[in-house]
Design goal:
Radius of gyration: 28 Å
CATH architecture of the largest domain: 2-Layer Sandwich
Strand order of the largest sheet: 1-5-6-11-10-9-7-8
CATH class of the largest domain: Alpha Beta
Number of strands: 16
Number of domains: 2
CATH superfamily of the largest domain: Bira Bifunctional Protein, Domain 2
Structural class: alpha+beta
Largest sheet: 8 strands, mixed
Number of helices: 19
CATH topology of the largest domain: BirA Bifunctional Protein, domain 2
Distance between the termini: 51 Å
Strand content: 15-25%
Shape: globular
């Protein structure tokens, strides 16, 4: 017996209905990206390993899918290297390429490679799949889409303000009202590390802090201690775990906490500008919150950072995130090109909309009207009408076989097609069509022009 086919863990097939819903999300995101002045690019699914490795920190590097070299990839590997059984060392010898981990590092590579063709500041959006060798679980996959927007070539904080507005616009248009846009600044975290005397452990500090919501305060403190941070320094971090109050009150407490750190105070000033601007401009439905515990564990973030939480009552992780990176392009040789960007989590947004039954009814169907097939002559009559309807922007189809009427009606019901058109000898003789509303059962006779107007 043939083995039942399978797909790798952490990947998925998508049905037509699921794809239509995903396209609704992507089209909403794209429409807003373009309203804000972003233009699309695409990059290859695979990059050279050297492009990706070392850009995401130790934990990120472990999650990169490596691609084996073509041909007999072990032939050129030194026997001593194989005998040492060091998987990391061997992987460098047998793999020159890797699947992209995110869209930001490939974008930085793109900017450097095409710098002479780009007008700065450069605003791009990109919607493509990425891959991570993570442990699959609810809301976390090994293959998933990212929807990114970035600006490079400007240090202006107005970009950060616009990204808050962009998040608000997209989620409001999707019907996910009252998302919480959490904001922080890596310079504040750097200042806290400086005040606590752990600047040399800054990466360990932010990586551990980024896990706070997942593993809790005690586990974070244990991880910090394992990384070599003293209990005294860990105790000094306690105020950031308990920082509370309004945004203004939090900023006031941070100013006191960071009074001996110029970098930390610079981060506070950045946030004051962004938050004051948003207050004056207003938001449609999103809630803005200062979360000092937000760290975004990726090494390349240097300034403002974002994370978006789903509306209350939806049990899912973050549905968006991003931040400023002052010198990401510098790793590829292009210095002093600051950038800032955000990402939308397509898969989690999908899950959130499903949980609240938030997809519009129009998105739930793929065809507006089905023409019943009564035979060859009737089908030709229907096909002529179908051509006109399609040219008028109406999604329609003819049932391909002239089978029993009941079977064709059941097909329309299963597909949730809202209208059915019937045209037999009687209708053809009068150049008419009988339109049936599948929900109410009502029927009406229309000429072709009336049919088009009714379905539009």
């Amino acid at each position: 017996m043939a083995q039942k086919p399978r797909i790798p863990k952490g990947t998925r097939d998508f049905s037509p209905q699921e794809v239509v819903k995903r396209q609704f999300i992507m089209n909403t995101v794209i429409r807003n990206f373009e309203r804000f002045g972003f233009m699309p690019i695409e990059t290859p699914s695979m990059e050279l390993s050297d492009t990706l490795l070392g850009k995401y920190g130790e934990e990120g590097d472990r999650l990169i899918f490596k691609i084996l070299n073509s041909g007999d990839y072990l032939k050129k590997v030194d026997d001593g290297l194989l005998g040492a059984k060091n998987s990391n060392a061997v992987s460098y010898a047998i793999s020159e390429k890797a699947l992209r981990y995110d869209l930001t590092v490939p974008f930085a590579r793109y900017v450097v490679q095409h710098q002479n063709e780009i007008d700065f500041p450069f605003k791009r959006y990109q919607i493509q799949p990425v891959w991570r060798a993570d442990r699959p679980q609810k809301g976390r996959f090994r293959e998933f889409y990212q929807c990114d927007a970035d600006v490079v070539g400007s240090k202006s904080l107005w970009q950060e303000v616009e990204f808050v507005q962009l998040y608000d616009a997209v989620f409001s248009d999707l019907g996910l009202d009252h998302v919480t846009i959490k904001i922080n600044n890596r310079k504040i975290l750097s200042g806290i590390a400086e005040v606590c005397g752990i600047s040399d452990r800054f990466v360990d500090f932010t990586v551990a802090l980024d896990k706070l919501d997942k593993i809790g305060k005690q586990k974070v403190e244990e991880e910090l201690h394992v990384k070599g941070i003293s209990k005294t320094a860990i105790a000094q971090l306690d105020p950031i775990f308990s920082l509370d109050g309004s945004i203004g009150e939090k900023l006031a407490q941070l100013k006191i906490m960071l009074k001996k750190s110029s970098e930390g105070l610079s981060g506070v000033e950045d946030l004051e500008f962004i938050l004051k601007s948003i207050t004056q401009l207003g938001l449609r439905s999103a809630i803005l919150d200062l979360d000092i515990k937000l760290a975004r564990g990726l090494n390349y973030y240097t300034g403002t950072i974002y994370e978006v939480a789903a509306p209350k009552g939806i049990a899912i992780g973050s549905i968006g995130g991003g931040g400023r990176y002052d010198d990401l392009a510098g790793i590829f040789g292009l210095k002093d090109v600051s950038g800032v960007g955000i990402s939308f989590g397509l898969d989690r947004i999908y899950m959130a909309l499903e949980e609240v039954n938030g997809f519009p009814n129009a998105v739930r169907r793929d065809v507006d009207v089905l023409f019943i097939n009564f035979g060859r002559a009737e089908a030709l009559y229907a096909m002529k009408a179908l051509k006109t309807l399609r040219e008028s922007g109406i999604n329609c189809e003819l049932y391909p076989d002239d089978t029993k009427l009941n079977r064709q009606m059941n097909y329309a019901n299963k597909r949730e097609i809202p209208f059915v058109v019937m045209a037999g000898d009687q209708e053809m003789s009068k150049h008419l069509f009988t339109l049936k509303n599948m929900s109410s059962g009502e029927q009406e006779e229309l000429d072709l022009g009336g049919l088009v107007r009714r379905l539009q």
